Structures are given as structure tokens and as C-alpha cells.
Amino acid sequence: MQHRYNSFGVLASALIGARAEAVHYPIPTTLPSAAASLDTTPVGLSFEFDVWPRYKLNLSHVWQCMNHVAELYGAKMPIRIGGTSQDRSAYDAAYDGDIYVDPTDDLHRVYGPKHFDLISDYGGETILGFNRGDNDFTNSLEAALAAKSRALDYLWAIELGNEPDIYYSVWGKPVATPPWNKSQEGENQAQWSQAFLDAWGESSSILSAGNYAVPIELMEAYPNTDYLINTAFNDSVKAGVKAYCTHSYALSGEDAELPDEMKHSKTVADLSNFVEKIATAKSVGRPYIIGEAGFHGLETKQDATFGGAVQIVDKTLHAVSMGRLSTEATSLLLRSPARERIVASDSGNDTYAQYVVYKRNLPYKVVLINTDYFSGNGERTATVFRLTGLPPLTLKALRMTAVSSEVTVEDSLPSIGGQTFSDDECTILGDRVFEDVGNLNGTAEVTLMASEAVIVYIDYDCA
């Protein structure tokens, strides 16, 4: 990989510093006690159950993009195969294809054993979802045992139902009876889980439990993972649970606009709803996963924008700093201790994020994110991040940027360190460009335009 260097960060400060807002979040020079361990594969990808085969067989550029991440991890990206369509899918051992979607019935799919062969073909850790909503335990168990026989080495966890908290209110699924509150859903999930574990026959933990749509109460006695842990699950089921999971879409109306949705303060507020849930799961020795993440389940346009990318970077890092990771429209989890730790060192009250990564108890990377919105028209605002408490080392930086918050890859490619990705095969184009960052007596200033992120390498040998 060729590297080039410039002093854009320093020049930008000099040229527009008079107009730029400034923020100052001191960098803790020693490892804070609140710092969370970084999982070695912190971000994965979730595939909707019924389109998983199409991605695997027909969209080669997706796998090339994932390979770039795998090179950073030293292992394949973890994946999840699930979503709304897992609760619309019936298993047929005699079906010779991977999955069939009836064009006349959007609520029904049929899939066969080849659906699982694609997991082994991928060869990475997988969370696999099955249908609980249609209340056919025999069929779902048959499917799970078929997956076990064909892809056991890659099954990290099994998910019994997707977003069961809205089985009644949104989908009217057969398993749900009104009002479908936490005691009803919890009892049903516990029964399915115990029966599944009895039939699975392995002593290791295998279930991803909960898998709820939202982390807040939409009605009295709303289903939640705390209730599963504290009340619904017996010791046998809790021993069979590998992780607890809830999804994290924006907790706002469907008409919410990108300028508000991508704000760092909004991301922090949304993720604050997981604090108690993470602590409860930790009390029984289990990690917490965000199984799906994005703006809204129906707001694909916002998710496709560069502002959406900036927000998902912020959400991922903030989630990891709370003590877990990510996999679907990204998704999030913390499994095993690693050498690196991370802390959020900003206030969480504005649009500017700062995350400090530590190795050997010393800071060696700082991630700066400016979540201000830029439409692409008019003047683009800038913010100077003032870093203090730095060791006397040479600093280098990589910048993630695009022409606006609203742009999508169809319009203009974003860049990371001056490099872009081709649309056809996700090939990396161009040389990596590191920026010089001046370090004067432990103080540095880095200018970020609206909707940009920068990684500052304190220990440049780690870049």
C-alpha cells in the first residue's frame, strides 16, 4: 500500500480558523476506569433472511468490501442472517433450492438445506434466525438441526424469532395473543428456548435472546431483556443464552430529517436506553448485541446517504465505548477481551464526538467526528477540535469525507484517507493520504468540516 502525506489539517486550520467553531475535550493521558475493551471483530453485517442467497451468489462486490474489513480484523466479518422475513419462512427439507419467495404472497417463503450450505461457503461466525412468529416449533427446530448438521462450525448463535415485541401490534403473528406484554412474550420465548436447548443437545451456550425491535416501552409492561433475565428465564435457559439482543433504530418519527437524525447528541440519547440492559446482561456474564442499527426500518434513503455513514460510525464507536459491538444495517457486540480499549471523551451534548483508543494503557488513536449537516449548497461550516494532553510524538491523520451529507455513492464516492472504492467490485482506488498534524507542547488542532470524521494516530507506527 502506497502512502502519501500532506498538511491539509494544518492548512485548513490556518485558512478557516477565523470562521471555525472550536471544541476542546481533553484526552485522558492514562487509561480511564470506564474504558471498554474492544472486541477484535467489533462490527459485522446482517443480511435479511430471504435475500441472503442473492447476496451470497450474485453480489460479488459486497464480499470484496467485506474482505477489506476482514483484512483489518485478521478474520472474516461476523454476520447475521435474519430479520422480518425469518418469521415468514417455512423450512422444507425436500426443497432443492435455497429459498423461494411466492410473488403472489409476500408473507410466505419456503427454504431448503442449501440456504445453510451458503453459511459454510462463507466461513465466518454467523447468527442465524428462525421463525417463531408462525408458532410452528417443529418446523423451526427441524430447520435449526439441519443448519447444525451443515454449518455447525460457523454458527455463533441461534435467534428464535425477530422483533417478537411487535409480533402482535405490527405483524399480527399467530404466536401472539393480546396484549402481548412482557409476561406473555417472555413466557413464550422461555418455552421455545428451553425446548430448543433440550433438542439441540450441546452443552455450550447457543441462543441470542430477546431480539426486540426497540429498547423503550411502547406500552405498559413492554417486552424487554431485563425481564427475560430477571423473571422469565430459568437457570437452564440463561445458561443456554450466549448473548442478549435488541435493535437500535432512531427513536423518532418517520418524518424526521437527516440534519436532526445524524446529530451526535441524538445518537448518545438513543443509545442511553441500553445502559441498564447492558448492565443486567453483564450481571449474568453475557454480552449485549445491537442486532440491527440505522435510522428507521423504512427510511432507506437516509441510511444510504453519507450523513447516514457518519452517523453509523458514531453510533458504532459510542456503542462499543459502552461495552458492546455491532452487526446489521450494522449490528453491535462485545465478546472477548482485547488489548485495545476505548472511551468516549466528549460531553455527548452537542454534534461533536471524540473517542480515544488505548493500547498498553496509553492513548494511541483519537477518532474525531463532526456530525453537523451540510446540504451541498452554500458555505460548509468547520469545527476545530483542540486536543490536549498529547505525548511528544509525531501525529498523522486519516480523513473520511464526501461532498455533502446528502450524497450517495451513486452520485459521488466518499473517500477515506484520499482513497475511494469502485462501484463494481469495491476495489480500493488511489493512494492512502496521511495528513500532518502539528503537536505543540502536547496540544494539537484538527479542523473537520461538517460531516467528516478523522482518525488521529498518536503512535504513528500503529497506523
From TrEMBL:
Domain spans labelled Beta-glucuronidase C-terminal: 354-455
InterPro entries found in the cross-reference section: GH, GH79_Enzymes, GlcAase_C
Pfam families: Glyco_hydro_79C
Superkingdom of source: Eukaryota
SUPFAM superfamilies for this protein: (Trans)glycosidases
Name assigned to this protein: Beta-glucuronidase C-terminal domain-containing protein
